[in-house]
Amino acid sequence: MDDNQSRTAVIEDGRTPSTRTVDVLVVGAGFAGLYAVYKFRQLGFTVRAFEAGEAIGGTWYWNRYPGARCDVPSLEYSYSFSPELEQEWEWSEFFPAQDEIERYLNYVADRFDLRRDVQLCTTVVGMSFDECAKTWHVDTDLDDKWEARFVVMATGCLSVPVVPKLEGMSSFEGKVIQTSRWPSDVDLDGARIALVGTGSSGVQITPELAQIAKHLYVFQRSAAFSWPSKNAPMDPAIQAAVKQQYRDVRLAQRSSPGGVSGFGGVPILDVPRPDKRILAASENELLDALDEYGFGACRVWDDVASDPQANERAVELYRQMVHRVVTNTDTAESLSPRGYPIGCKRPVLDNGYFQAFNRDNVTLIDLRLEPIERVTKAGIQTSARHIEIDVLVLATGFDAMTGALTRVDIRGPNGQKLRDELREGCIALLGLQFSGYPNLFTITGPGSPSVLSNMVPGIEHHIEWISECLVYLRERGLKSIESTATAQNEWAEEVQRAAIGTMYVADTCNSWYLGANIPGKKRVFLPYIGGFGRYVTVCQEVVDGGYAGFRTS
Ligand code: N01
């Protein structure tokens, strides 16, 4: 890179220049943004990360609601870039809770002196590409201006919350809290709480709120498929064994479908067995499976993931299990999923979700039977009754995978807006770069395995791929790289093709993977389901082919 100028232009002496310049500008300071700072700096690039939050951590800073927990084993949901870090950090549980992950990320930030290149409380609002200078002009909400040869959007897949438009909400005199913007200082002991939403966040928070609320009302639009997490305190022997073989663990992650090695002996979920077909099973076999596997009984059959009839039989098994656990028959019936298959939405892992409905202070409101009419100043009016509450908790999801990109006004060389193309269902080449937007990279963007795999190895892989690419450009005196429209379209077709035949795209499936929770968002399957290992191979082939599908200049 010819930019001696850009290496020195970050003014640290208190003067405020009109425009400040770095080689790589990173948006976000969660798992991805922090590693980006580390990696680009290590390679000699100047780097600056902007983070909207008051602290680092991304997802694990914002989602501090009671019960927030990762559904990937801690020993695998961790950085691999530093063998020393791997040895130093001790995980206390198999599935880490939010506060432990947040502590880990803060430890990493200090351990590698990352904070000096992270600017908190700063939202990137827009950017445009200067074709002549091959540079991005970036604006923040602080009105300062930055120039960067490269921009890396480390903005997360689930970072822009959806707030439902409930009539009368502004008149409510109690507290409204989103799970994804949970305040650190709220005390809900003895409160009457309404919870709207029963996806992963709603399911995780339910048993926690049940323990502290005077009364908890759970407003459910669709019943969730959730499985007991089987979380447990970390077994020190397992932790020590994994630490001894971390290099093998990491290699196995990068060649596995889901970015998880399976080392570490964590009992995750019961998995399909090639010899078991639910359509061939007798009623007695089904009952035996329920006795043996509980909620996992619906998952052990080989035909459930691909055959809609088999899937419906598995759903019926799941419903039977709900009725076994939940004592009130009407509540159990409402909590029994209907109308969409297992494997359509992200599986939820819980810690006592269904059991919470057996408590006297928990009531399920089935919105299919009793819709919300409006929020009042003292509570919620449904079609059947008025429910007085002190607090309204919204666990209503995210504008997934593209929301954080559409929120920023990103304009390419001809003034075209990325948000317009995303609305049309545009998918990035390898989930890494959009045609027409040179030198702009997305971490775990639409078209990457991302949310279908372990995010941390995915993030590390992307940042390493990008940094190798930047070094490639620097060594050849090249100033820009951009995916071609042809390669991008071919990849977008591959992403859709890979999902065909799965329950993710079944006619009856409406999920955030498909953008179905956002009115007007085009129905496109956004993540790549072909497997993380296969994806890593494809990315390497692109590099080996001299960045095949990309144009450099
Ligand atoms: O969001 P969701 P989430 N009125 O979209 C309901 C990750 N995550 O935050 O299904 C009434 O899944 C909506 O109803 P319906 C994980 O990848 C991981 O829970 O659309 N209800 C649904 O029940 C996860 O998949 C972890 O009918 C309304 C809920 O709100 C992803 O984040 C923990 C409504 C939204 O569920 C998103 O999970 C937490 C309305 N107007 C999150 N609008 C772990 O690692 C929406 N809903 C374990």
Characterization of this structure:
The strands form five sheets. Strands 1, 2, 3, 4, 5, 6, 17 and 18 form an eight-stranded mixed beta sheet that branches. This protein has a five-stranded parallel beta sheet with strand order 7-16-8-9-12, with helices on one face. 31% of the residues lie in helices and 16% in strands. With 553 residues, it is α/β, with parallel strands linked by helices. It is globular.
Essential attributes:
17 helices, 31% helix, binds 3-acetylpyridine adenine dinucleotide, alpha/beta, 16% strand, five-stranded parallel β-sheet, 553 residues, eight-stranded mixed β-sheet
Quick structural overview:
With 553 residues, this protein is an alpha/beta fold.
List the helices and strands and how they pair.
Blueprint (H helix, E strand, L loop, with lengths): L3 H5 L10 E9 L3 H12 L4 E4 L8 H4 L20 H6 L9 H14 L6 E2 L4 E7 L4 E6 L4 E9 L21 E4 L13 E5 L3 H13 L2 E6 L5 E3 L7 H9 L1 H10 L27 H11 L14 H18 L3 H6 L13 E3 L2 H4 L5 E5 L5 E4 L3 E4 L3 E3 L2 E4 L8 H4 L2 E3 L6 H6 L16 E3 L12 H21 L5 E3 L1 H15 L32 H13 L5 E3 L1
Parallel strand pairs: 1-2, 1-6, 2-3, 4-17, 6-18, 7-16, 8-9, 8-16, 9-12, 10-11
Antiparallel strand pairs: 4-5, 5-6, 13-14, 14-15, 19-20
Helix pairs in contact: 2-15, 15-17
